[in-house]
Amino acid sequence: MRQVERDSGEWHKVWGALAATLKGGALPAEGCGQVQCGIDDFMLMGMDDNGTAHFKNVATRSYLLIGADGAPAVPAVPAGAFFACKAEAANYRVEHHGNCILVFGAVPLSKFGALTKLVPKDSIMDPHLARIAGASFAMGPREETGALVALMSGAAIERARAMYAGTELGEDAVKWIAVGERGSSSEAVFLKLAGIRSHGMSGDTTAHPHDIDDLRRCRLLLEQVPELAVRIGNMSGVSREWTALISKWDEICRTMDEEAPGWRDGKGSSPNTNALIRECLFVGVEGASQNG
Question: Of 89, 106, 128, which marks where a domain is finished?
Fold first, then answer.
């Protein structure tokens, strides 16, 4: 599958075909019911040599194929994408990378158990690898999924550069979108402070850290995109929880550094940091109830 140059004639043509499909509500097969979906929910992954454009639904991580004639391609689109189809019509493929597998498309629940048998027993689900690879999900031994992340990061960054060319996003922000570790709270920080919703983000600017893992991802974002770090105070006022967290942000980060110097790699225990986070969230909830 080849990439399509952004803002080229071909780019506008395939996006026009997607818009027409969404507006027209054409169905690719019998037994499918149309569901609501906007054009902003899709991302162009590339095109086959036969002119079929592959669009990814960034909300459901499934795919819609638009043929060269502008009509939805057959077989039917996986359930959960633009069309709600029977599970039997689901269309997916599996890529093997050593002891790891990447699965693209929508997998019927009845097939999931069989897929887990393709990897060693000590394997993990790695959503970070799945996002970098553009897959629905990824499984494999932790060391090997980590190696795949490193191997595929360059291509993911190049795709993000092409996608966000012409925007106000700097190189650091583009790299974080492509390969940064993301969670709901770190995405909320990015969306609020950068002012741009990237593909795959929910658009929720109020999500806040609940524990040390969430805080770790937020801090990694701020370290990797320094222009956002100087504006972290702007999260105060987003919600009562964020206001409470920002009021003790420096203390929370200092405690985390002292308790777990290896936090960037997910190493160490941080009970006092977690206690500070819970204290802030309690203050936020109490403030909401008193003013409710």
Answer: 89
2: in domain: no
pLDDT tens digits, residue range 57-94? Answer: 665 555 677 776 666 554 334 433 333 333 334 578 89
**Tokens 């999924």, located at residue:** 145
Evaluate the CA torsion angle 78, 79, 85, 86 in order and state its sign.
positive
Residues 262 and 282 in one domain: yes
pTM: 0.65
C-beta of residue 165 within 8 angstroms of C-beta of residue 6: yes
Q: What is the dihedral of CA 193, 197, 200, 206, to 10 degrees?
A: 50
Whether 252 is in a domain gets the answer yes
Does a structural domain hold residue 44?
Answer: yes
Domain count, the chain: 3
Domain holding 227, by residue range, is 169-292
Task: Please identify, among 102, 130, 163, the residue that sits at the C-terminal boundary of a domain.
Answer: 163
Q: Are 215 and 273 in contact (CB under 8 A)?
A: yes
57, two tokens: 């639904």
The answer, yes or no, to whether residue 6 has pLDDT greater than 80, is no
Cβ proximity of 130 and 105 under 8 Å? no
Q: How many residues does the chain have?
A: 292
Output the CA–CA distances (angstroms, integers) from residue 235 to 201, 252, 292, in the order listed: 18, 15, 22
